[in-house]
Design brief:
Strand order of the largest sheet: 3-4-2-5
Largest sheet: 4 strands, antiparallel
CATH topology of the largest domain: Multidrug efflux transporter AcrB transmembrane fold
Shape: elongated
Radius of gyration: 24 Å
Number of helices: 10
Order of helices and strands: HEHEHEEHEHHEHHHH
Strand content: 5-15%
CATH superfamily of the largest domain: Multidrug efflux transporter AcrB transmembrane domain
CATH class of the largest domain: Mainly Alpha
Helix content: 55-70%
Amino acid sequence: MNTKFKFIKYTKWWFMISAIVILIGVGAMVSNKVRYGQFLQLGIDFTGGTLMELKFDEAGTDQLQALRDTIDGAVANTVSQITVTDQDTYIVHGKDLSEEQYDAVKASITEQLGAFEEIRFTTIGPKVGETLKRKSMTALSIALIAIVLYIAYAFRRVPKRISPWRFGVCAIVALVHDVLITLGVFALMGFEVDAFLITALLTIMGFSVHDTIVVFDRIRENLKQQGRDDTFGDIVDLSLNQTLSRSINTSVSTLFTLVALFFLGAESLRIFIFAMIIGIIAGTYSSIFIASPVLTIWQERKRLR
């Protein structure tokens, strides 16, 4: 069986590239744990607290310190972090504020620093944050289980020498790969993990598994025409060559839209879109270079036994 490119021949290289990227991300998570006490910088969606975005006529480091002192002067130990955006606004992260405390903070800022525009204000209690964290993990777990069950059912007519469950498990390996890379990049960049990221991860999982199923479906069809001298790796190489252009074209067309939204879209959605960009790149890679090689290794070892 002649194929254009022998993907399976270079399996070790594909795995090595993924391992390096994942290890860099895991290293960033461990570093965050040592420095800040948590692997990822959790937003107030999960920890509870208050987020305010304020805009003054002038922005600068002196103003930033004055803002911190002013808020903490109104309500002691309120501020946990203040950042300045490229829109010259201040994003203040702090503990959960009551209505009276919030009014006191605004009055103090106006008195000490002058008039300001409040771009947004969000407050979430610690119990709500903990509930959201638990529900997010539940949603991700249910999605993974549902994907395994669906793929096993969809590939139930695969030749009997291959278990349909193997397709489902290998798809999950690719999804875990994509999630780890996305979270690793967030840890490395110091971005916050919030509800938008969970939405992005669920979307990434759907996109990635769709791409993987296309490849697996081609493998299933080619197995029906497998020659006596054709190995399972030959079938996978043929299938990947047949679906490669489709996978790349789909991903690139999606990335064009996401990149445009990243630079031209709303500031509040930029981190969400960034997660989508990283996840789709990782998902396209894993569908071609991770899921199918893992399936091949698993099946070839069974045959050798």
